[in-house]
Amino acid sequence: MNVYSDSSYSALKYLKDTEVNIDNILIMTGDFNIRDSLWNLSFPFHSSISDDLIIIADSFNLTLSTPTNPCPTRYLDTAGEANSVIDLMFLHYGSSKLNHHSILPESHLSSDHAPLSINIPIYKEVICTSKLLIPPKSNQETAFIEEIILNFKNLDTFDIGDTEKLEHIVNQLGAIIDQAWTKNAKKSKISKHCKQWWTEKCCHSLNNYRMTRSLNNWKSFKKVVKNIKRSFFDAKIQEVTNKSCSPWELMNWISRCKLSAIEAIKHNDHLCLFPESIWDTLHSTFNTALNCQIDLNILSKIEHKTTLR
């Protein structure tokens, strides 16, 4: 995170008074415009603003970095004014790879600030582009289940007298599943074009079209895809309605809802189309009925219901 704080310390005041949710910060550096004896031993004074800066850095789990070559970071051409250290770097606390930085005074050129330098190690990351899978409702899935059931039946589970034998049986179960998975699973490339509804039947129909390039085979492929997609999503609909019992999740809430048929309120043969006219109508109607006598005998016409316990 790069920070520039002006002479009024606006950035520090903002970071202090505002709850900033930034996770996993490795480096915070910049021109903080603070001269202090904490990072410049030739400067004899200490500022309370420096304490605020240390507290802010600690909230990000950062600690002040000590340069390998302590020297000024700002160079002034004005006579009588000394160079200063106001460019700082804070590094992730406890990191063995990020523990110091360097100041490059010979590289400031026409600028009055010397750049700060640090080496950030970047490790190689292996990103898997494929995975083993067994397509649902495929021949491989059937063979996988049958092989597991057959090997489970052949396991000797009658003599499980202690935890060691039990652990041995459990390990055998895991080995049987791993062996069956490796034997029947196939490698599939991970991409944005992966489709859950795609089956071996789709592959077979597509290969037929690619071999012949005929219009009839193309139409046959499109028909197969349509039927399989319909079966797949019908099953998903049944899963939502039967298991979660939330059929409203299937409704399309994105499209514009049709307004229900309504009739505008009329008062004195005038339509009440605005909130002001509706309020005036309600107000006048309430005042009209305020002092009217009420016939309570109408309540006796209501049929009495037996109270359920």
Overview of this structure, please?
With 309 residues, this protein is an alpha+beta fold. Among the domains are: 2-117, Endonuclease/exonuclease/phosphatase (Deoxyribonuclease I, Chain A), CATH 3.60.10.10; 134-157 and 164-187; 200-244. 37% of the residues lie in helices and 11% in strands. The chain contains seven helices and ten strands. It has helices at residues 10-17, 48-59, 139-153, 163-184, 200-212, 215-244, 275-289, and strands at 2-4, 27-31, 62-64, 87-92, 102-103, 116-117, 130-133, 186-189, 266-267, 270-271. The strands form four sheets. Strands 1-2-4-3 form a four-stranded mixed sheet, with helices on one face. It has a two-stranded antiparallel sheet with strand order 5-6. Strands 7-8 form a two-stranded antiparallel ribbon. Strand 9 and strand 10 form a beta hairpin. Helix 5 (200-212) runs antiparallel to helix 6. The longest helix has 30 residues, at 215-244. The two termini are 68 Å apart. The mean pLDDT is 83.
Judging by the overall fold, what is the CATH architecture of one domain? Answer: 4-Layer Sandwich
CATH class group of one domain: Alpha Beta
- How widely separated are the two ends? 68 Å
Sheet-strand content, in percent, reads 5-15%
Biggest sheet overview: 4 strands, mixed
Arithmetic mean of pLDDT: 83
The H/E string reads EHEHEEEEEHHEHHEEH
Global shape? extended
Report low-confidence residues grouped into runs of 5 or more: none
- Which superfamily, in CATH terms, is the homologous superfamily of one domain? Endonuclease/exonuclease/phosphatase
SS element count, helices: 7
